[in-house]
Predict the structure.
Amino acid sequence: MRVFAAAWTNRRESALFMIASHPVAIPEAARTPHTPPEPAMPLVHPRLAGTTLVPDFLLRDEREAIPSTTLEALTRALSAASGIWAPIVRHDPVERWYTRLVLSGSVEVWLIGWYSGQETATHDHGGALGALCVAQGRVEEVIHDRRWQPCGSRHFGQGTSATFGRSHIHRVVNPGPGPATTIHAYSPPEVPLRYNPDSMAPAAGMETQPGPVRVRDRA
């Protein structure tokens, strides 16, 4: 199991690098374009190092689809381990917070903190299977059909979980009054999300599965 602490930055922890406005002499070797190698997988959050919460077969480099029932069992195990997520999670009143816990060839796992009233845009997961479990508080899921129209809802309290299939479309909200914490797993990982073409955000209607720092559009 490889642990890469540098990979686990979030919006509040990201460093900003500024270039001086005056000319700076750059060594010849530094002028050569260089693409840094991608980090080796699996990536595991430091809080999970040394634990057995994530089975070894989920940490392989091979890209394969993991059944949604296995994803659900993983989110339930992690949600029950409050000693892992409680020191990490944040509940930001400005925007939804998240950090990735696991990335392997077959699965990615996210920890999400919801302030009361925060919600996602309506989206699918680009053909990935998924599961979520509520570790704290409660959330509501509004389910949409293939025409992106609401067609039902589900309510999840603390300790409850759910799965969704490859064509599932939904919007998730924390109805309050308190904060909520959820853990989500997707397989295969890093699949682009797709959004309601009639919605205003995100731009271009697509976001990668690991997501940029637009936290409000991940669930």
The first helix runs from residue 68 to 80.
